[in-house]
Amino acid sequence: MEKDRGDSANQFFGGFGSFLRKCIFRILSMGPIPNHIAFIMDGNRRYAKKQGMEEGAGHKAGFLALMKILCYCYELGVKYLTVYAFSIENFKRKPEEVQSLMDLMLEKIGELLKEESVVNQYGIRLYFIGNLNLLSEPVRVAAEKAMAATAKNTKTVLLICVAYTSYDEIVHAVQESCKENRNEIETLYASKVSNGVTEGVEEGEINGTTEHDVQGSCENSLSESQALNTTRACNGVIGVEKKKGVTLRAIQGSCEDKWDEATSRTSNGVTEGVADSKKKQWMHPTIKLVDIEKNMYMGVAPDPEILIRTSGENRLSNFLLWQTTNCPLYSPSALWPEIGLWHLIWAVLNFQQSHYYFEKKRKQS
Amino acid sequence: MICLRSLPLVPLELKSPLSFRTRAQQHHSHPFSQTLRSHTEPHKTLTRGGTATTTAANVALSEHNDLNAAEEEEPLPSELSEELMPNHVAVIMDGNGRWAKQRGLPASAGHQAGARSLRELVEICCKWGVRVLTVFAFSYDNWIRPKVEVDFLMNLFEREIKSQMQKFVSEGIRISVIGDSSKLPETLQKLISDAEEATKDNSRIQFIVAVSYSGKYDIVQACKSLARKVKDGVIQLEDISESLVEQELETNCTEYPYPDLLIRTSGELRVSNFLLWQLAYTEFFFAKELWPDFGKAEFVEALISFQQRQRRYGARLS
């Protein structure tokens, strides 16, 4: 009887809590909602120690917290979530801890793929971001299987960074860009040789001065919500000119969301790197910012708009260095398993406040 | 790029970015730093952190050859530990505009006040033994600001360099400028070049000013440089590593390319395309004061916060 009453009480409060949460989310949704939130899930071990649990239990509690936050975020309307699950530097930890983390990952990937899991509930597409070759075979295979199994989901996206550091990601992108650049040069050289005329004129070094490659113009009319949804560089060739049979890549630019306080939204980027058609000298194609960006592992998602690191530490620890240049970093002192709804609400409110601040500044200028 | 030097190839020992240490553990075993040292007069490595006692800064400072004997000493506040002082401090000097607006002054007044704050910070860092101070004076993204403001800032930089030149020389400050200098007025470019040349052998503190700088473009130019080397057969594609990328970044002009502490004023919680690669393990301190109001007391607060932090670099302290 007591137990039944206890269970009903729990149900009632649980239901009320859920109702309250939905109300709060509805109010929050009247303002802008971030499209992409990233989390550094720090503090699992300290949590275990604090609760007097054994070491591995902290990570299990961390996983439960992740599921909770995931649900809150997707309910709120956030589309992309990125979490820092395991850094390449973490491989230096004790082998037992590394092994237990790998085992936990394997177990949880399996759970996520079950019919009744959150993945299906929220239509989550999974990505495992990082140097997956560094993972043990079973984990890597499971990760690849999970990515394939959820590839058709389109509602929300969860990016799990494992065996990841920004350094590794950037070096990989640099290598790929260099490889493409080399292939491009070889192709152009071959075509030059075969045609006997100077063709394939591209931007490059003019008069020994290396020109800045990527500029662009962000239109003032780009609405805030658009800007929020496309915080990462919009790649692509904006203008291509054909002149006397020679294709000049006139403008290749990237629009970047600029968050500096005094920066007006109308950024008239300088268009550079236009080959002087009169010169018609042969120049090597050079690598541009867009080339590097498209080779990033995180290229599958826009840049995060909020970065939250728990446990009060105020550093990035080699996480999303490239993608968070304009993203605020919040550092609540709660340990990761202690993260709750209020942290999320507070972060979103701050986001909305700075969003309105920049809107106001933009209108004033 | 002013600060980019083409260095001879060094052995490809992987420098771990995690190797910045507290002063107590200071030793420069990295081949890259050896190469750099050959650019300057050999300078004394500060080893005072290695001694058991925490000596007051005024005793340690006398080890420097460049010290101006008549200079006023300024001991480290008692709340701070000399051993835990950061080697490299980076600052995003934000809030000049708002400071001016609050007082009903034009933005230029804010920047003047900001310049004063900066002078004070350089002096304090000098006295307290910070080895490198990097400041974000002007972002590549700032070129879109009103021309009046940009012109004023360029003039301000010129005036400041001219007026502080004597001090740089006499106090052993080595000035370096990073960023895309091609967009700066020619007079400023020449001034910077001369200032760097005149102070290149100074070793008390390195003062790096980021002007027309962007962290992303720093990486892009490093990538282009590596692509050139691959094309020329100097290196293989597979050789491209973290170490090689680091060597190509504009911060290769210093022995301590990675800031230990980044301070941003005015309450903004973002990096805004300042150093990118270099900030992987940097401790952030977000100060709510506007830059012209950021003085010694606020700097001490940032240092106290820094010294209390536990830096693990992904591993675990047992």
From TrEMBL, chain A:
Q: Which residues form the signal peptide?
A: none
Q: Which GO terms describe its cellular component?
A: endoplasmic reticulum
Q: What molecular function does GO assign, one term? A: ditrans,polycis-polyprenyl diphosphate synthase [(2E,6E)-farnesyl diphosphate specific] activity
Question: Which controlled-vocabulary keywords does the entry list?
Answer: Transferase
Q: Known SUPFAM superfamilies for this protein?
A: Undecaprenyl diphosphate synthase
**GO BP annotations, alphabetical order:** polyprenol biosynthetic process
Pfam family name, one: Prenyltransf
Query: What are its E.C. numbers?
Result: 2.5.1.-
- Does Transferase show up as a keyword for this record? yes
Q: Which CDD domains match?
A: Cis_IPPS
Task: Please name the InterPro entries in this protein's record.
Answer: UPP_synth-like, UPP_synth-like_CS, UPP_synth-like_sf
Keyword field contains Cell cycle: no
Please name the NCBIfam families in this protein's record: uppS
The similarity comment for this entry is: Belongs to the UPP synthase family.
Q: What is this protein called?
A: Alkyl transferase
Automatic annotation (TrEMBL), chain B:
Q: Which UniProt keywords apply?
A: Transferase
SUPFAM superfamilies associated with the record: Undecaprenyl diphosphate synthase
Matches recorded under CDD domains: Cis_IPPS (cd00475)
Which PROSITE patterns does the entry mention? Answer: UPP_SYNTHASE (PS01066)
Coiled-coil annotation: which residues?
none
What does this protein's UniProt record list under function? Catalyzes cis-prenyl chain elongation to produce the polyprenyl backbone of dolichol, a glycosyl carrier-lipid required for the biosynthesis of several classes of glycoprotein.
Question: What protein name applies here?
Answer: Alkyl transferase
